[in-house]
Write a structure and sequence with these properties.
With 496 residues, the chain is an alpha/beta fold. The protein has helices at 11-25, 29-34, 50-64, 99-107, 128-135, 147-155, 157-165, 195-210, 224-231, 257-265, 289-302, 328-331, 345-350, 363-371, 385-396, 424-435, 440-455, 462-477, and strands at 2-6, 37-44, 73-79, 117-122, 139-143, 173-174, 183-184, 214-216, 239-241, 273-277, 305-310, 336-340, 354-359, 376-378, 399-401, 407-411, 414-418. It is an enzyme of class 2 (transferase).
Length: 496
């Protein structure tokens, strides 16, 4: 059986697909007998940014050197000729235009009568479910966020649509089966409240329901309520919690890595340093000067040891630091470090000196922080991050609320985000709670770190068991792929 992964061409999504492929290739002996190859199709409209290109090249080189599975993991690129535009409503590249390329790729496989394919498509690539259906290829969805967020798509879109239709009479809370507590409407992902992008997600949800199953980047012990809610509801396909999917071998070199680790090594007291990082997409610009000053003021007043990944909006060689209060760097140089640009997040979270993480609550960052047992101070910025923040604070108890949601102003076809300035006093309170060694969130994060590691172990780990179940189910659902035995799927309407 050959598995074909189709990830969204965004770094975090590609990494999740590759890590899942590695788990499958390095699985038990029974799986090795079933899975012959994992091919990752990279949908490429133009040249990738340097980070993605370097990552794919490094993974290709590593796979080639694997003596146990020298040809099991392969990368192939499908290029879309111009013009090619991104889908502005969702903020992710549109993949519909790649359907002809994927059909041609499958047709060109010239599979032997015994050849079998299974698709595993990213949830933003669910348009490829149609291609799988055309060829009789069983198709599964890889959901790179958590199970609770998946429930928003599967169970609650009709309720959310009514919120968009009546923006002046908002419902403060809605009931979503994958959350124990009433869910605040203000924490819904912004694209779901945008009338244009809502239709896109409506289509995604419909295709998810029609898939053979959904592999979710979570683990049972983290989201037991959400996983059980999905498994118990006939509206959801089979659910496989197979996470956490983490690139723990992420490069720990480049930038100021040496200086960063040396700085952390200077603190012998474990858990005493606060790490602040707002994600790879976040940039501080002139419009953020007031908020930057409030964060800096809170850090200075608390006397908190800190490491701040400070990315400015301009490629200005660090001149964005001018947004900081005058003299801040000098006054805090003995307890803090501000780094402009990229930082080795995995290496930082793994360091024993780090005791808390103020994060944008992207799902990968959330899983990384919990893997290392570090509690999270929530500061969501966009996407599903507000839902993740709510999950951490109100459902799981491994996070401290510093900022939970941005104010949303919903209008016809648009979704304007109005950022509320979080004052220094509130940030101080959140930092104090997060770094308090007696705060239960610290113990909860530590427990989840241990459970996340056990979930992936071969000796009864929940995610390991779930992944084995997926392999067996996929093999069971396999249909013989013989190109000549299918009606030609390439019809004029597919190119419209």
């Amino acid at each position: 059986m050959e598995l074909v992964f189709i990830p969204t061409p965004i770094m975090g999504h590609i990494v999740s697909a590759v890590e899942l492929a590695k788990h499958l290739i390095n699985g038990g002996r029974d799986d090795e007998a079933i899975i012959t190859t994992v091919t990752i199709l990279i949908l490429q409209k133009r040249s990738f940014d340097a980070e993605i290109s370097h990552y794919i090249q490094s993974q290709t080189t590593t796979a080639a050197k694997d003596s146990r599975h020298p040809s099991s993991l392969k990368f192939e690129s499908l290029t879309l000729p111009p013009p090619a535009t991104d889908a502005p409503a969702t903020g992710v590249p549109s993949v519909d235009a790649f359907k002809p390329q994927v059909r041609d790729w499958v047709s060109g496989k010239n599979l032997r009568p015994s050849g079998r394919l299974t698709f595993v498509v990213d949830f933003f690539c669910t348009a490829m479910v149609d291609v799988g259906n055309d060829f009789g290829i069983p198709t599964y969805v890889l959901f790179t966020s958590g199970a609770a967020t998946l429930g928003v798509l599967i169970f609650s879109l009709q309720t959310i649509q009514s919120l968009s239709d009546h923006p002046n009479n908002p419902t403060p809370f809605i009931k979503i089966p994958t959350y124990r507590n009433p869910f605040p409407a203000k924490c819904l992902p912004p694209p779901l409240l945008n009338k244009d992008s809502f239709q896109t997600f409506l289509g995604i949800a419909e295709r998810i329901r029609g898939a053979k199953g959904v592999l979710v980047n979570t683990f049972l012990e983290l989201e037991s309520h959400a996983v059980n809610a999905l498994n118990d509801d006939p509206r959801a396909p089979p659910i496989y919690p197979i996470g956490p999917l983490l690139n723990l071998e992420a490069a720990a070199a480049g930038g100021e890595t040496g200086q960063i680790l040396e700085f952390l090594d200077g603190f012998q007291e474990q858990g005493s340093v606060l790490f602040l990082c707002f994600g790879s997409m976040a940039r501080f610009g002139a419009e953020d000067e007031e908020q930057v000053k409030e964060i800096a003021t809170a850090l200075e007043r608390n006397g908190q040891r800190f490491l701040w990944a400070f990315r400015s909006a301009e490629d200005d060689g660090g001149q964005g630091r001018r947004l900081l209060p005058d003299g801040f760097l000098e006054r805090t140089e003995k307890v803090g470090k501000v780094v402009n640009g990229w930082v080795p997040q995995v290496a930082i979270l793994a360091h024993p000196a780090v005791g808390g993480f103020i994060s944008h609550c992207g799902w990968n960052s959330t899983l990384e922080s919990l893997w290392f047992g570090k509690p999270i101070g929530t500061w969501p910025i966009g996407a599903e991050q507000e839902a993740n923040a709510f999950l951490l604070v109100k459902e799981i108890g491994a996070g401290v609320e510093i900022k939970l949601a941005a104010k949303k102003v919903v209008s016809d076809g648009t979704d304007e985000l109005v950022s509320k300035i979080v004052p220094a006093a509130e940030i101080q309170r959140g930092i104090a709670q997060l770094m308090d060694p007696l705060n239960p969130v610290r113990q909860k994060a530590k427990e989840l770190g241990e459970k996340s590691r056990r979930a992936l172990t071969a000796e009864g780990g929940s995610s390991y068991t779930s992944l084995r179940r997926f392999v067996q189910d996929a093999f069971h659902h396999q249909q013989l792929v013989s190109i000549d035995s299918y009606p030609c799927p390439i019809l004029p309407q597919f190119f419209e």
